Amino acid sequence: QSLGALSLDKIIFIPSGNPPHKSRDVLSAETRYKLTVLAACLNPRFEVSDYEIKKDSVSYTIDMLKHFEKILRGEMIFLLGMDALNDLKDWKDGGSILNNFTLGVWRRSGTMPPEGFGENPRIKRIDAPEIPVSSSMIRKNIREGRPYRYLLPEKVYEYINAMELYL
Predict the structure, then answer these.
(1) Is 82 exposed, middle or buried (0-12, 13-18, 19+ CB in 10 A)?
(2) Is the pLDDT confidence value at 2 over 70?
């Protein structure tokens, strides 16, 4: 949806390595990278970067954005959900992200845009149908033995089952 809505040439997925806001019971960075590669292989305009998972230090979005700003040619748009945009003020250098980088933002159910949302020229709204699926919902379905097969790409589903992830 974002490729067309924002006229993007490609999307680079960057699994976080060691995020400061997540508990330590998340999957390993290598496993998250593998799952992302399996999902991204469905579209030739999707790429996956291992930049974050190769870092030994805590992963901060501002550092990742500055890194990719140096190596990419052309305009770069950081994609995130409305819920993450609302939390941006609490992120390391969140104001700098908001003021210095272009953001592509998806609507999220029950999430209102922050004050001044429509006034910031660096924020581009992605008007696409909302898909009522979240990673937390999928993990919960797996743990509770509920169906989730059709919520994921087939290769991701097969890998999760083979490795018995999230059980």
Answers:
(1) buried
(2) no
CA-to-CA distance for 30 and 20, rounded, in angstroms?
17
Contact 139, 162 (CB under 8 A): no
- By DSSP bridging, strand 123-126 and strand 46-48 are unpaired
pTM over 0.85: yes
Domain 2-131 sits in which CATH superfamily? HUPs (3.40.50.620)
Q: Where are the domains of the chain?
A: 2-131, 133-167
The 10s digit of each residue's pLDDT in 3-16 is 677 888 999 999 98
Residues 71-126: tens digit of each pLDDT:
998 889 999 998 899 999 999 999 999 999 999 998 877 777 777 767 889 999 88
Residue type, 148: Y
Strands 77-81 and 46-48: unpaired
The answer to whether 5 touches 126, Cβ cutoff 8 Å, is yes
Helix intervals (H) in the chain: 2-5, 29-40, 61-71, 82-87, 94-100, 135-143, 154-163
Cβ-based neighbour number of residue 126 at 10 Å? 19
